[in-house]
């Protein structure tokens, strides 16, 4: 699903008050963490994931892997936080039209 700029701005506004749902631990991006992210996307559609690492390259690689594995749309990254959106079957969030 491709989001328009208007839809992305709307979702960023919705995500502003959210707290990170998934926090990566010292083991990094494991299969269990990916399952947790998939589950959170199904339940909430719009989530934040926190990746506490100081190495920019590692952080970027982890962000890319999460996006690739979940099939979610990256809305933005703010420091250690990745904001993701993936529409579920129920379509809980009503997106504005293009």
From TrEMBL:
An annotated Gene Ontology molecular function: RNA binding
Keyword tags: RNA-binding
CRM domain sequence ranges: 1-97
Presence of keyword Calcium: no
Domain of life assignment: Bacteria
Protein name: Ribosome assembly RNA-binding protein YhbY
Name of the gene encoding the protein in the UniProt record: yhbY
């Amino acid at each position: 699903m491709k989001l328009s700029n208007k839809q992305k701005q709307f979702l960023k506004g919705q995500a502003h008050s959210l707290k990170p749902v998934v926090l990566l631990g010292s083991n990094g991006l494991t299969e269990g963490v990916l399952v947790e992210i998939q589950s959170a996307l199904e339940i909430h559609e719009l989530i934040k994931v926190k990746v506490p690492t100081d190495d920019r390259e590692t952080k970027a690689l982890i962000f890319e892997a999460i996006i690739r594995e979940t099939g979610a749309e990256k809305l933005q990254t703010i420091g250690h936080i990745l904001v993701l959106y993936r529409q579920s079957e129920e379509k809980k969030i009503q997106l504005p039209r293009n």
